[in-house]
């Protein structure tokens, strides 16, 4: 099945990602960690999308401001040459002028195109957040599929979230949810978080038996747990 082409619309102060799906009959605007997306029926004309974004512009801007106020102050300036971590490796940001499109990891650099060379830090940050969330959705699904049989469980589903102070969660209905920021940690630490939440499907506590279940699969889990404790504040965009 072909991967749908990403669509982006300039909302006059923000960029909205248009996500078309056959599963929706109505449009739904979401602002997650400041990044704007609009889920729409697959055949909805782009003029209708633009009209919706225009009508909801004030609400969207207010939500973006709330997200900005709620998150810790970033030390990043979102300019070419800055380093951003992905699976424990640092990649340099490269900002180029051009029509907005998805961030690409190309030749060891994170390439961001900035409309008309506006170089607006928030737009660049939101583009990076979208990219990390996409990577998280893809990579964590692969890891859940790989480790679930090893743990001996089967989750009811998986989603990507923005958590303030945790890397993942296991709901009462057996759904796993992961913080997209974990994609900045070393790959082994990402494995630990996935195994941790999978083990919660059979044990919803942090009893000695729970940790023994993790150790059976990942004997070095303590190093990963400690690394995340010590470096959590650095894993931010």
Q: Regions with pLDDT < 50 over 5+ consecutive residues?
A: none
Categorize the overall geometry.
globular
Number of helices: 6
Number of strands: 11
Instruction: Calculate Rg over CA atoms.
Output: 19 Å
Q: Averaging pLDDT over every residue, what do you get?
A: 91
The arrangement of helices and strands along the chain is: EEEEHHEEEEHEEEHHH
Amount of helix: 25-40%
| Biggest sheet: strand arrangement | 1-2-4-3
Distance between the termini: 32 Å
What characterizes the major β-sheet? 4 strands, mixed
Strand content: 15-25%
Please give a structural write-up.
This protein is an alpha/beta fold and 237 residues long. The protein is 38% helix and 24% strand. It has six helices and eleven strands. A four-stranded mixed β-sheet has the order 1-2-4-3. It has a four-stranded mixed β-sheet with strand order 5-6-8-7, covered by helices on one side. A three-stranded mixed β-sheet has the order 9-11-10, with helices on one face. The longest helix has 31 residues. It is globular. The protein starts with 6 loop residues before the first strand and ends in a 6-residue tail after the last helix.
């Amino acid at each position: 099945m072909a991967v749908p082409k990403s669509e982006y619309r300039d909302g006059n102060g923000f960029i909205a990602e248009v996500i078309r799906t056959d599963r929706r009959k109505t449009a739904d605007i979401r602002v997650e960690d400041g990044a704007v997306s609009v889920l729409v029926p697959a055949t909805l004309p782009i003029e209708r999308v633009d009209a919706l974004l225009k009508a909801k512009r004030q609400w969207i801007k207010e939500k973006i401001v709330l997200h900005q106020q709620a998150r810790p102050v970033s030390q990043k300036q979102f300019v070419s040459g800055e380093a951003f971590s992905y699976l424990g490796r640092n990649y340099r940001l490269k900002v180029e002028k051009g029509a907005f499109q998805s961030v690409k990891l190309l030749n060891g650099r994170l390439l961001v195109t900035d409309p008309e060379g506006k170089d607006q830090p928030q737009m660049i940050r939101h583009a990076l957040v979208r990219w990390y969330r996409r990577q998280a959705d893809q990579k964590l699904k692969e890891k859940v599929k790989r480790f679930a049989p090893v743990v001996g469980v089967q989750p009811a589903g998986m989603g990507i979230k923005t958590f303030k102070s945790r890397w993942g969660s296991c709901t009462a209905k057996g759904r796993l949810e992961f913080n997209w920021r974990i994609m900045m940690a070393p790959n082994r630490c990402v494995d630990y978080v996935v195994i941790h939440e999978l083990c919660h499907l059979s044990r919803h506590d942090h009893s000695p038996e729970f940790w023994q279940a993790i150790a059976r699969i990942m004997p070095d889990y303590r190093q990963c747990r400690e690394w995340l404790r010590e470096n959590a504040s650095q894993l931010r965009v």
